[in-house]
Amino acid sequence: NAGTKADVYISVCGERGDKGPRQLLRSQKSKKFLKGQTDIFAVEAVHLGHLYKIVIGHNGLGSGNGWFLVKVVIKDPITDLDYTFLCHRWLDQGQGDGNIARELPVTGASTFPGRQELELKREETWAAEKWKFQKGITLQFYNSITCGFIFLYPDSRVDALGDKKNKYDKAFSMWMYA
Protein backbone atom coordinates (compact mmCIF):
# COMPACT_ATOMS: atom_id res chain seq x y z
CA ASN A 1 0.00 0.00 0.00
CA ALA A 2 2.88 2.40 -0.68
CA GLY A 3 1.72 3.44 -4.15
CA THR A 4 -0.96 5.95 -5.11
CA LYS A 5 -3.63 6.47 -7.75
CA ALA A 6 -3.98 10.16 -6.84
CA ASP A 7 -2.82 12.89 -9.25
CA VAL A 8 0.83 13.73 -8.49
CA TYR A 9 2.22 17.22 -9.05
CA ILE A 10 5.78 18.56 -8.99
CA SER A 11 7.21 22.06 -8.98
CA VAL A 12 10.93 22.45 -9.70
CA CYS A 13 12.85 25.49 -8.40
CA GLY A 14 16.20 26.66 -9.72
CA GLU A 15 18.42 29.72 -9.76
CA ARG A 16 16.38 31.20 -12.64
CA GLY A 17 12.96 30.68 -11.04
CA ASP A 18 10.49 27.82 -10.94
CA LYS A 19 8.27 26.12 -13.47
CA GLY A 20 5.14 26.01 -11.31
CA PRO A 21 3.23 22.84 -10.43
CA ARG A 22 2.98 20.30 -13.23
CA GLN A 23 1.03 17.08 -13.09
CA LEU A 24 3.10 13.97 -13.78
CA LEU A 25 0.97 12.33 -16.44
CA ARG A 26 2.79 9.86 -18.67
CA SER A 27 5.23 7.45 -17.09
CA GLN A 28 7.26 5.03 -19.13
CA LYS A 29 5.44 2.33 -17.13
CA SER A 30 1.88 1.31 -17.98
CA LYS A 31 0.73 1.97 -14.38
CA LYS A 32 2.42 4.77 -12.49
CA PHE A 33 3.31 5.22 -8.81
CA LEU A 34 3.20 1.55 -7.78
CA LYS A 35 5.02 0.23 -4.71
CA GLY A 36 8.69 -0.51 -5.42
CA GLN A 37 8.52 0.93 -8.93
CA THR A 38 10.67 3.63 -10.51
CA ASP A 39 8.65 5.88 -12.79
CA ILE A 40 10.27 8.04 -15.48
CA PHE A 41 8.60 11.17 -16.85
CA ALA A 42 9.65 13.62 -19.54
CA VAL A 43 8.73 17.16 -18.48
CA GLU A 44 9.31 20.10 -20.82
CA ALA A 45 10.30 23.39 -19.21
CA VAL A 46 12.58 26.36 -19.72
CA HIS A 47 16.08 25.84 -18.35
CA LEU A 48 16.04 26.84 -14.67
CA GLY A 49 19.80 26.78 -14.09
CA HIS A 50 21.06 24.90 -11.06
CA LEU A 51 18.19 23.34 -9.16
CA TYR A 52 17.88 23.77 -5.41
CA LYS A 53 14.48 22.33 -4.41
CA ILE A 54 11.26 20.68 -5.54
CA VAL A 55 7.77 20.63 -4.13
CA ILE A 56 6.03 17.32 -4.79
CA GLY A 57 2.64 16.12 -3.68
CA HIS A 58 -0.72 14.74 -4.73
CA ASN A 59 -4.34 15.84 -4.64
CA GLY A 60 -5.38 13.26 -2.00
CA LEU A 61 -8.24 11.93 -4.11
CA GLY A 62 -9.16 8.27 -4.47
CA SER A 63 -9.14 5.40 -2.02
CA GLY A 64 -5.74 4.43 -0.67
CA ASN A 65 -4.15 7.62 -1.96
CA GLY A 66 -1.24 7.55 0.51
CA TRP A 67 2.17 7.31 -1.12
CA PHE A 68 5.63 6.49 0.26
CA LEU A 69 8.20 8.43 -1.78
CA VAL A 70 11.84 7.42 -1.56
CA LYS A 71 13.48 10.00 -3.80
CA VAL A 72 13.24 12.04 -6.98
CA VAL A 73 16.10 12.32 -9.48
CA ILE A 74 15.99 15.03 -12.13
CA LYS A 75 18.31 14.68 -15.10
CA ASP A 76 19.14 17.98 -16.78
CA PRO A 77 19.74 17.23 -20.50
CA ILE A 78 21.45 20.60 -21.10
CA THR A 79 24.12 20.36 -18.37
CA ASP A 80 24.08 16.54 -18.10
CA LEU A 81 23.76 16.91 -14.31
CA ASP A 82 21.62 14.74 -12.04
CA TYR A 83 19.84 16.37 -9.09
CA THR A 84 18.69 14.09 -6.27
CA PHE A 85 15.95 15.00 -3.78
CA LEU A 86 15.65 12.53 -0.88
CA CYS A 87 12.29 12.02 0.80
CA HIS A 88 11.92 8.58 2.49
CA ARG A 89 8.53 9.69 3.89
CA TRP A 90 4.81 9.21 3.45
CA LEU A 91 2.66 11.66 1.53
CA ASP A 92 -0.49 10.54 3.28
CA GLN A 93 -3.09 12.23 5.46
CA GLY A 94 -3.25 9.10 7.63
CA GLN A 95 0.50 8.41 8.06
CA GLY A 96 3.32 10.26 9.81
CA ASP A 97 2.72 14.01 9.93
CA GLY A 98 -0.30 13.83 7.59
CA ASN A 99 1.20 15.97 4.80
CA ILE A 100 0.42 15.07 1.18
CA ALA A 101 3.05 17.47 -0.22
CA ARG A 102 6.75 17.83 0.58
CA GLU A 103 9.35 20.51 -0.09
CA LEU A 104 12.62 18.70 -0.73
CA PRO A 105 16.03 20.40 -0.96
CA VAL A 106 18.56 19.15 -3.49
CA THR A 107 21.06 16.64 -2.18
CA GLY A 108 24.52 17.35 -3.47
CA ALA A 109 28.16 17.01 -2.58
CA SER A 110 28.00 20.30 -0.70
CA THR A 111 25.01 19.21 1.43
CA PHE A 112 26.48 15.90 2.64
CA PRO A 113 24.09 13.40 1.00
CA GLY A 114 25.46 10.61 3.14
CA ARG A 115 24.52 12.52 6.27
CA GLN A 116 20.93 13.02 5.09
CA GLU A 117 20.61 9.34 4.22
CA LEU A 118 22.07 8.41 7.63
CA GLU A 119 19.48 10.60 9.38
CA LEU A 120 16.70 8.85 7.47
CA LYS A 121 18.18 5.44 8.35
CA ARG A 122 18.39 6.54 12.01
CA GLU A 123 14.64 7.19 12.02
CA GLU A 124 13.95 3.81 10.41
CA THR A 125 16.26 2.05 12.88
CA TRP A 126 14.60 3.71 15.89
CA ALA A 127 11.18 2.62 14.61
CA ALA A 128 12.44 -0.97 14.46
CA GLU A 129 14.38 -0.97 17.75
CA LYS A 130 12.26 1.15 20.11
CA TRP A 131 10.55 -1.95 21.52
CA LYS A 132 13.72 -2.56 23.55
CA PHE A 133 13.06 0.62 25.49
CA GLN A 134 9.47 -0.13 26.47
CA LYS A 135 8.31 -0.20 30.08
CA GLY A 136 9.33 -3.35 31.94
CA ILE A 137 12.36 -4.30 29.84
CA THR A 138 15.85 -4.49 31.36
CA LEU A 139 18.72 -3.88 28.97
CA GLN A 140 22.10 -5.45 29.54
CA PHE A 141 25.21 -4.17 27.73
CA TYR A 142 28.65 -5.69 27.73
CA ASN A 143 31.69 -3.40 27.76
CA SER A 144 34.68 -5.12 26.18
CA ILE A 145 37.11 -2.64 27.75
CA THR A 146 36.06 -3.25 31.37
CA CYS A 147 34.87 -6.79 30.61
CA GLY A 148 31.78 -6.03 32.65
CA PHE A 149 28.04 -5.60 32.20
CA ILE A 150 25.99 -2.43 32.42
CA PHE A 151 22.28 -2.72 33.22
CA LEU A 152 19.44 -0.31 32.44
CA TYR A 153 16.43 -1.21 34.59
CA PRO A 154 12.74 -0.52 33.88
CA ASP A 155 12.52 1.80 36.92
CA SER A 156 15.21 4.08 35.34
CA ARG A 157 18.05 2.79 37.53
CA VAL A 158 21.43 2.25 35.90
CA ASP A 159 23.93 -0.26 37.25
CA ALA A 160 27.22 0.76 35.64
CA LEU A 161 29.57 -0.85 38.15
CA GLY A 162 30.75 -3.21 35.49
CA ASP A 163 29.54 -6.44 37.09
CA LYS A 164 31.54 -9.32 35.59
CA LYS A 165 28.61 -11.73 35.81
CA ASN A 166 25.73 -12.02 33.34
CA LYS A 167 22.56 -11.54 35.41
CA TYR A 168 20.16 -12.59 32.68
CA ASP A 169 19.73 -15.30 30.09
CA LYS A 170 22.01 -14.52 27.13
CA ALA A 171 19.08 -14.94 24.76
CA PHE A 172 17.62 -11.68 26.09
CA SER A 173 20.86 -9.71 26.42
CA MET A 174 22.02 -6.97 24.11
CA TRP A 175 25.77 -7.09 23.61
CA MET A 176 27.35 -3.72 22.83
CA TYR A 177 31.09 -3.62 22.31
CA ALA A 178 32.82 -0.32 22.99
Automatic annotation (TrEMBL):
InterPro entries for the chain: Inner_ear_hair_cell_LOXHD, PLAT/LH2_dom, PLAT/LH2_dom_sf
Residue stretches making up the PLAT domain: 1-105
Domain of life: Eukaryota
The protein's name in its UniProt record: LOXH1 protein
Organism: Chaetorhynchus papuensis
PANTHER family registered for this protein in UniProt: OXYGEN-REGULATED PROTEIN 1 (PTHR45901:SF7), PROTEIN CBG12474 (PTHR45901)
Pfam families noted in UniProt: PLAT
Stored CDD domains: PLAT_repeat
